[in-house]
Amino acid sequence: MYAKCDDIESASKVFREMPMRNNVSWNSLLAGFISNEKYPEALLLFDSMSKEGIEADEVTLVNLLQTCKHFCDPIHCKCIHSVIIRRGYEVNDLVLSSLIDAYAKGNLITFAWNVFNQVKRRDTVTWSTMIAGFTHCGMPDEAIAVFREMNKTQNKPNAITVLNLLEACSVSAELKRSKSAHAVAIRRGLAPDVAVGTAILDMYSKCGAIESSERVFEQLPQSNIISWGAMIAAYGMNGLPHSAVALFHELKTHGLKPNPVTTLSVLSACSHGGLIEEGLLFFEKLVKDDVGELRLEHYSCVVDLLARGGKLDIAMELIKKMAVSGPNPGASAWGALLSGCRSHGNRELGSAAVSRLVELEPCRSAGYLLASSMYAAGGCWSDAGRMRWLLKERGVRMVAGYSLVHVSSNNKAFKFVAGDDNNKHYPFSSELCLVSGQLHSCMKFDDTRIHI
């Protein structure tokens, strides 16, 4: 009871005062730590459980697998898998589904797929978990293929399955697939459900079909703060910041209270839409009226808003204020500042942001690449090369940027990956080739930026 009421300290006190404890007692507190995101404490409790001579059962292992998603340590997940094998728990469907989910969330999708193929009796949960796993790892084609394979069996998709399918279509950003997924939700009678309807709305927005998002939103029998927030985010994502702000004000007339996600969506829409003054006024009103809980993400979004608009000194002042009286500026705030310094050519301020960003996220490529790009744009080739060398020296894996282009002639979306020489082998339509040629003819190059 205490754990489910988010009072884990009281739950721990009750546990300690128990004269006798069994597996149920240990597993209850273990689940409480995990549900309250106390992952290190959960591992310490499991260690104490072993020292007390209490043997882990299926429930213990399922709970422990939840910690793998937080620590993202492949060895941690493999160790639990070995315990599952030794104890003979591979016949337990819940254990296997949790194992598939843990491997996938740790980006070990090959291991997740191997476990899935070993499951002899797959139920709806197992299929849904595998679909979600492929989607999480950025493999929407494989996720949709698993869903199609599931349809050939006697297992019928439920709401969770459809939600995972809709997420996969969102990642693929292919409109034809998205419409097919929408049709699946309608046939299963799930489209009126507010969670499924919101997912459909979000899916269409990520395909750039904002009109379809609006229709889905208007047709929802019941809408909640999550669906309103999704529509606000959809406007911001599709370059309609004024519509996002207007919808936020309309939200309050319907008696709904904004939450941190909706306010963040409005700030993000203002940032990406160039509404600097509107975004700052909105943020000041949030601080003054205490509308919702302001988090680090809100402050980072305002830093991004200022940095995009070239107000780098003001952005730096906000970061300094955050360090004194607000939430500590994280990598997102420093990354936003660095991105603005790159765009507006402020290497002095950018160098300070680089050192903090690389310190906070030494294993992510974004900071190194942003810094390298900033130095290269200013002609500081030795500094640009040094950042590339650090990236390689520390073994940081680079994630290439890409664009998706929907070709109407064959109704497919093609991915253009940065630095991929295979782009030229894509079956472009004649229309796309024509547009590409026109773009190249209009491009102008700054000879001062060319370096051989």
Protein model, in words:
With 452 residues, this protein is mostly helical. It has helices at residues 8-16, 23-35, 39-51, 58-71, 74-87, 93-105, 109-118, 124-136, 140-151, 159-172, 175-187, 194-206, 210-219, 225-237, 241-253, 260-273, 276-289, 296-308, 312-324, 331-344, 347-360, 365-377, 381-393, 430-442; strands at residues 402-407, 412-417. The protein has a two-stranded antiparallel ribbon with strand order 1-2. Helix 6 (93-105) runs antiparallel to helix 7. The relative contact order is 0.04. Mean pLDDT is 87; it is low at 448-452.
General form: globular
Q: What's the overall average pLDDT, rounded?
A: 87
Q: Which class best fits the helix and strand makeup?
A: mainly alpha
Beta-strand percentage range: under 5%
How many whole angstroms does the radius of gyration measure?
25 Å
How many helix segments? 24
Low-confidence stretches: 448-452
β-strand number: 2
Distance N to C terminus: 67 Å
Helix content: 55-70%
Biggest sheet character? 2 strands, antiparallel
SSE series: HHHHHHHHHHHHHHHHHHHHHHHEEH
Biggest sheet: strand arrangement: 1-2
